[in-house]
Specification:
Blueprint (H helix, E strand, L loop, with lengths): L9 H9 L4 E5 L19 H12 L3 E6 L4 H8 L8 E3 L5 E2 L2 E2 L5 H20 L4 E4 L3 E5 L5 H13 L8 E5 L2 E5 L5 H12 L3 E6 L2 H7 L7 E5 L8 E3 L2 H16 L2
Parallel strand pairs: 1-2, 1-10, 2-3, 10-11, 11-12
Antiparallel strand pairs: 4-5, 6-7, 7-9, 8-9
Helix pairs in contact: 1-8, 2-8, 6-7
The structure holds the ligand O=P(O)(O)OC[C@H]1O[C@H](O[C@H]2O[C@H](CO)[C@@H](O)[C@H](O)[C@H]2O)[C@H](O)[C@@H](O)[C@@H]1O.
Ligand L263DTV3 binds next to strand 7 and strand 9.
Function: Removes the phosphate from trehalose 6-phosphate to produce free trehalose.
Organism: Gordonia amarae NBRC 15530
Catalytic activity: alpha,alpha-trehalose 6-phosphate + H2O = alpha,alpha-trehalose + phosphate
């Protein structure tokens, strides 16, 4: 998809955003910068998207960020972007930055996390293809590589079990259920980034359920873009990660010449 195939009304929204006094360009990682793949450690970003985000961060009066459900160090490793570089990285669904977590992680949180890991490990052991991804404030139970029946059974056990425990926040995403021990919100993360950078306009690209919390914090002057299928409150939709690269490159080129 070349930039001349970006259709209205997204095209006009990008032209307007590119002229903002201060622009924040922010994106999700999995399913947006990187295509969805079978194993989380194999998620490689589209180099053109990363280059465009880096170019945005280098422009005057322009900030750039990647806001992901991944742990911060993992996000940095997969994206190739440094934790403390020009592109701000926010991990753990909006709760983790280079300065730490938004909430103090207590021994109680850690004990609950350990209980969830134990429970999810026992679920995963019963269903081939199901795996556990422990993270700093949450645990993901991935069912992408399980049979449909095994995936359903594993998700139902997680929902009826650990997801119902006190102090647990459950989120379901793409072939995954994730349980966090502190409240998470990519929306609050975007609010904080907007306040810190002084951005007049925020553009955010996301593909999954947790990105809806980010879209919900965007206003009429902002640009919300859903990548792929599924219900969304975003104002714009594009089909895939290749189009993400086209959109980001178009936006950066416009801003470079404005
Ligand atoms: O907020 P994101 O950057 O979109 O991260 C969301 C989760 O992404 C990863 O899982 C998803 O992507 C995997 C790789 O494509 C895929 O195999 C899996 O089925 C998806 O759920 C990551 O592993 C999670 O930790 C993130 O929370």
């Amino acid at each position: 998809m070349s930039d001349n195939t970006i259709e209205e009304p997204l095209r006009s929204a990008l032209v307007t955003a590119a002229a903002a006094p201060h622009l924040l360009v922010a994106s999700d990682y999995d399913g947006v910068l990187s295509p969805i793949v079978s194993q989380p450690e194999d998620a490689v970003p589209n180099p053109a998207s990363v280059a465009a985000i880096e170019s945005a961060a280098a422009l005057p009066d322009t900030s750039a960020a990647v806001v992901s459900g991944r742990a911060l160090t993992d996000l940095s490793l997969r994206s190739g972007l440094p934790v403390d570089g020009p592109v701000t990285l926010i991990g753990s669904h909006g709760t983790e930055s280079s300065t730490g977590f938004i909430t103090e992680i207590t021994d109680g949180h850690r004990a609950l996390l350990d209980r969830i890991i134990t429970e999810f490990s026992s679920v995963a052991a019963d269903y081939p293809g199901v795996r556990v991804e422990p993270k700093p404030i949450s645990v993901a139970l991935h069912v992408r590589n399980a049979s449909p029946a095994a995936a359903d059974a594993a998700l139902n056990r997680a929902r009826a079990g650990a997801a119902s425990w006190d102090g647990v926040e459950a989120t379901e995403g793409k072939a995954v259920i994730e349980l966090a021990v502190i409240a998470t919100s990519k929306g609050h993360a975007l609010d904080a980034l907007r306040a810190r950078t002084g951005a007049d306009v925020v553009l955010y690209l996301g593909d999954d359920v947790t990105d809806e919390k980010a879209f919900a914090h965007l206003g009429d002057s902002d640009v919300s873009i859903k990548v792929g299928d599924g219900a969304t409150i975003a104002r714009h939709r594009i089909p895939d990660t290749d189009t993400v690269a086209t959109v980001l490159d178009f936006l950066v080129t416009l801003r470079q010449s404005s």
